[in-house]
Amino acid sequence: VQLQASGGGLVQPGGSLKLSCEASGFTFSSYSMNWFRQTPGKGPEWIAFIGNNEGWTKYYADSNRGRFIVSRDNAENMTYLQINNLKPEDTALYFCTRGAIRTMSVRGLGTLVTVSS
Known about the structure:
Number of helices: 0
Helix content: under 10%
Radius of gyration: 13 Å
Structural class: mainly beta
Largest sheet: 7 strands, mixed
Distance between the termini: 37 Å
Number of strands: 11
Shape: globular
């Protein structure tokens, strides 16, 4: 099982990014997925969840509601996280996980997002 995030980088405040997480080694369509982020010295922060049910149920952390959009493409074994109106406090390592909401039993390598002018 592998989960590999990508798409991070240096972005100015107010900008947008679309992060990707490529899954392999399992039947992607059978699993729900989450996005988390983590900054040095802090524990992981859950951001968003997308189910594997018909209609793909989505949940977001209240603090991020409105700026983050989670999606998936089962044909490509990918899940995505669109982040709009980026703020310096969004600077973190972002990673995806497989499984129930807010779980990290299966996590992948992250991608670093830096928001700075």
